[in-house]
Design brief:
Layout lengths: L1 E5 L3 H13 L3 E5 L2 H10 L4 E5 L7 H10 L6 E6 L3 H9 L4 E5 L3 H14 L8 E4 L2 E4 L4 E4 L2 E3 L3 H12 L5 E2 H9 L8 H14 L8 E4 L3 E4 L5
The structure holds calcium ion.
The site of calcium ion has 5 residues, from loops.
Length: 226
């Protein structure tokens, strides 16, 4: 899952980037409102974390412009403690949540996961399931046929993407950009290696395979009735 952070304070930005990367997210960080808006309009993000006080366009203006362009991506606002009115204003303008600075990383991560679980349909899904495969988004656990599968953060991210878009053939380049933040076809070998590992963990011991290679196109997770 891909997150755009717009934060002008270098320390806070780095702190967020590092923590969220370790939690398995793909992070893009920019330092001002104009760059933030530009990125948001050019790319697909699962979430935008938006500071209010920014050089160039401020957080509100960025949010307003994102919504004006018809983009529904969730936005989490970061506001200073002495700007209580900001929260109300932010929520009225279409932010999904806000967090008052200073905040603990644990709190931020909890908010981020809640927003992402809600997804675009606004439904707060706690688990994803396809056939006998289940992904517990709250506890970050995967099980198949009730049996626990141990996954790394990247494998979890990869499986989550496949499950959220199950039945859809996902090109390697899309997977690379959503899970690894890589945009070049030459890097897709990383995707193949990770996919092989993921498949051996979740498909090897089962008769019914869920992840399929579509030659020349990419991968799809689906329950095939053959
Ligand atoms: Ca700021």
């Amino acid at each position: 899952m891909k997150i755009l952070i717009v934060e002008d304070e270098p320390k806070t930005g780095e702190y967020l980037r590092q923590g969220l990367s370790e939690a398995g997210f793909v992070i893009e960080l920019v330092q001002n409102g104009n760059d933030g808006l530009h990125r948001a309009l050019q790319n697909e993000y699962d979430l935008v974390i938006l500071d209010v006080m920014l050089p160039g366009l401020n957080g509100w203006e960025v949010l307003q412009s994102i919504r004006k362009h018809g983009l529904e991506m969730p936005v989490l606002f970061l506001t200073a403690r002495d700007q209580v009115d900001d929260r109300v204003k932010g929520l009225e303008m279409g932010a999904d949540d806000y967090l008052v600075k200073p905040f603990s990383f644990a709190e931020l991560l909890a908010r981020v996961r809640t927003i992402l679980r809600r997804g675009r349909g606004g439904i707060d899904a706690k688990t994803l399931s396809v056939a006998d495969l289940e992904l517990d988004l709250l506890r970050r656990r995967a099980t198949r046929g009730g049996r626990r599968i141990d996954l790394t953060a990247k494998e979890f991210g990869l499986l989550e993407l496949l499950m959220r878009r199950h039945g859809e053939v996902l090109p390697r380049s899309l997977i690379a950009s959503q899970v690894w933040d890589m945009n070049f076809d030459s890097d897709t070998n990383v995707v193949e290696v990770a996919m092989r590992r993921l498949r051996s963990k979740m498909d090897d011991e089962f008769d019914q395979k869920l992840i399929h290679t579509v030659r020349g196109m990419g991968y799809v997770l689906e329950e095939k009735n053959t």
